[in-house]
Amino acid sequence: EAQVTQNPRYLITVTGKKLTVTCSQNMNHEYMSWYRQDPGLGLRQIYYSMNVEVTDKGDVPEGYKVSRKEKRNFPLILESPSPNQTSLYFCASSPTSSRADTQYFGPGTRLTVL
Amino acid sequence: AQKITQTQPGMFVQEKEAVTLDCTYDTSDPSYGLFWYKQPSSGEMIFLIYQGSYDQQNATEGRYSLNFQKARKSANLVISASQLGDSAMYFCAMREADNNAGNMLTFGGGTRLMVKP
């Protein structure tokens, strides 16, 4: 089944404890991205990747890191999480960055930073 | 300025009736894509329908259709024969061809649809 998977689905952690949210897609998509969703602020892009080893900042990259060593994986790293990073996180992928390409979303990761 | 505006924070519809969810957008790019996603209470984002800026006909996917009025910059989602399972948040989104931001999706604030039995 074609899909985007994320792990973990739920995470409660404490301020400053490094964490990684994994994202994997099995559709051979070139483009991958991370979004966060917050009440009243909607979905905002954190980072994106056009292809392997090509990543760039989105609208809200502060406090996050990403890497794209393989085409299928695009992990999101929080080196020192803070409470303002409590949010619902989505990974998404599309065949390319074309405006005609649909982005398919993972199931989401609900992160709480205490 | 907001790129995607959804003016209806919440809507009710009677089961089996049709409902229209409004979306207006703002872009100077002649080439763009418009998307609708559904987010049920479980949280996942489900792709529903796509309309390209150069498409001559309105997109349709099963019970979903898109009323695309390019001159008015509107892309309203029409759901026919509403079902209880249609109760969810609905997001309109746009992907521009060259927005110098990795062609990311820009989302509207969403409309919460509630289907009454």
Layout of secondary structure:
The complex is a heterodimer of chains A (114) and B (117).
Chain A: E1 4-7, E2 10-13, E3 19-25, E4 31-38, E5 42-51, E6 54-57, E7 65-66, E8 76-78, E9 87-94, E10 104-105, E11 109-113
Parallel strand pairs in A: 2-11
Antiparallel strand pairs in A: 1-3, 3-8, 4-5, 4-9, 5-6, 7-8, 9-10, 9-11
Chain B: E1 4-5, E2 10-14, E3 19-21, E4 24-25, E5 32-39, E6 46-52, E7 60-61, E8 64-69, E9 74-79, E10 88-96, E11 105-107, E12 111-116
Parallel strand pairs in B: 2-12
Antiparallel strand pairs in B: 1-4, 3-9, 5-6, 5-10, 7-8, 8-9, 10-11, 10-12
| Range of strand content of chain B | over 45%
Task: Tell me the radius of gyration of chain A.
Answer: 13 Å
Q: Calculate Rg of chain B over CA atoms.
A: 14 Å
Largest sheet of chain B: 6 strands, mixed
Give start-end ranges of low-pLDDT stretches of chain B: none
Give the helix level of chain A as a range of percent: under 10%
Q: Helices and strands of chain A: which structural class?
A: mainly beta
Please state the average pLDDT score of chain A. Answer: 95
Can you count the helices of chain A?
Answer: 0
Q: How much beta of chain A, percentage-wise?
A: over 45%
